[in-house]
Amino acid sequence: MLRPASALPPFQLANNARRRRALISLTPLIDVVFILLVFFMLTSTFLDWRPIELNAPGPTAASAEAGDSLLIEIRTDGLRLDDEPVTPAELRRRIESQLAHHPDQRVRLKPTAGVALQRTVDVVGLLTRAGAVNLSLIRDRQR
């Protein structure tokens, strides 16, 4: 049975026009931004990159000045200062005391086979913090 047109509800076009746009919550967006901020803060490195200046002497200069210099061997099992085993702290203390008496003291570093480059760089950093400025690296000719 059909209802007459007057019995139907009126057309509600006005209600659709009043509907507001859906609000987008900003909370998830802010959460993502903070997570990215924390991620980049934690993965960034805050190392102090300082260049280490090394002067490469000629092949004859090393043998001429070897007599009055300190020899530090960097071995896989530890450090040696003039064939005497030392700890890094003791090495620094001894270098500082030596440089207090002879500021131009020459220090030669000899990394042995199997020593990581980072370990050598750490020892160079230790020596520069101790005040050594006249450093030389000795390369093993057999390698």
Give a nutshell description of this structure.
It contains 5 helices and 5 strands. It is of the alpha/beta class and 143 residues long.
Q: Can you give a write-up of this model?
A:
The chain is an alpha/beta fold and 143 residues long. The longest helix has 17 residues, at 27-43. 7% of the residues are buried. It has a domain at 69-137: Nucleotidyltransferase, domain 5 (2-Layer Sandwich). It is built from five helices and five strands, in the order αααβββαβαβ. The chain is 38% helix and 15% strand. The chain has helices at 13-18, 27-43, 61-64, 88-101, 117-130; strands at residues 70-75, 78-81, 84-86, 107-111, 135-137. The chain crosses the membrane at residues 21-42. InterPro entries: ExbD (IPR003400). It is found in: Cell membrane. It holds the Pfam family ExbD.
